[in-house]
Request: fold
Amino acid sequence: MSGVAFAKLKLYLSTGKSKSEGVEPGMKYPPEPFKIKVVEHISRTTREEREAEMMKAGYNVFNIPAEKIYIDLLTDSGTSAMSDNQWAGMMLGDESYAGSRNYYHFERTIRDIFGFKHVIPTHQGRVAENLLFSTILHKGLVVPNNSHFDTTRANVEYNGGVAIDLVNEAAKDPNKILPFKGNIDLTKLAALIEKVGAEKIPLGMLTITNNSGGGQPVSMANIRGTSELLHRHGIPFFLDACRFAENAWFIKTRETGYADKSILEIANEMFSYADGCTMSAKKDGLVNMGGFIALNDDALAQKLTNRLILIEGFPTYGGLAGRDLEAIARGLVEVLDENYLAYRISQVARLGDRLEEAGVPFLKPTGGHAVYLDAKSFLPHIPQNQFPGIALIVELYLHAGIRAVEIGSLMFAQKDAETGVVRYPDLELVRLAIPRRVYTNSQMEYVGENIIEIFEARENLKGFELTYEAPVLRHFTARMKPVMV
Ligand code: F0G
Reply:
């Protein structure tokens, strides 16, 4: 990357603002660009209550009722607060089976931002993935991506394909500060095409931002480069667009030449290089449910639509109510607001900055939607076979009522069927995903302070062992107990 861009990144990382925006006095961390009209009560439980809940849950926070959680950072998906404008739009829902006016608004908005010809609504992102991969894949085909999200990988593999992650090597070092750690390695992508042959690759993908790799953005140069490489071999190119606006904000603030472009212009350019996208509107759509697939290919769109009718519904609602389509149409416009994005990204960065001051290890730089604690460095005395990420998650709940998700050995460690040897992932991460427009900066300060308190007494934390595990996706239902020493 150019020296200018890197200087800008350093300024951004130290101030939360890019040079192009200027750092206005008092605006190192832009405050919430909204005021609160409706509130939802949350209550703090006592440590004793939390201990009882945790035992009942088998030390798995997925099993704890949400009402017993104080600050819920399990996911940023479907947990956004909608605006008054979106709620007003819900009252204008046209619940006609066919041709709802909200569908036309939804379609028009998506065409304006994403630029694709066909717009197919689905009830969430993984259905868009399911439709796409069940239509284009068969055994032996290969799908490259920077990093597949787990539902994307599952949909590729379930349909006989091989999902290959080609994120750049630097992304694997949690301490390396780079502006676009979500970039795909184009040399590796070229080598893969050479090795398996273009005819074995029905499409290539990029996930923006790269959720499995720390919510890190992909640069416009990398999106363009991927597009050129795939298209040179006649391979279609799709974006997994869940967090497209957050990615666009990083391009604006970190990539040379984009400082004066609007988020809409940047989004238009990103999607202009692709042939289609899958989208979970539960993230940057600022809604609680919804998704879509959008694309240019007429014949493929026809096939997807036929399948949609079988599994979701008529093409003008696709598993959603008319009011949901309206809320998405409005959310997709609101998410492009630069005041919102400046606040959003800085809320995440601010938590990272607080942890950095106290020496708490986490994946750097902070991503768009989450801070990923580095549990291996946080708890070096707990070996990987005793789940350091779980130890940290359990303590986050017991100490402060905070819920986070483990992205480490519980989720990914694999036992070799023949040798019985367990392969552990490189990183043991604990993701603190921040819902959009939900928690105030003072609630986030509470999160930071409590993590620091846990860090200061980290030697007291103990490892865990499994008492129950399901054969697949065990992290959702696993039960555990503390290791007795
Ligand atoms: N792609 C990415 C990059 C995602 O992060 C998700 C969901 C999906 C696809 C699937 O979308 O949930 O609407 O079916 N991520 C959530 C998370 C679940 O917690 O990161 P969905």
Observations:
- Residues 1-21 have pLDDT under 50 and may be disordered.
- The CA atoms of residues 180 and 199 lie 30 Å apart.
- Residues 338-357 form the longest helix (20 residues).
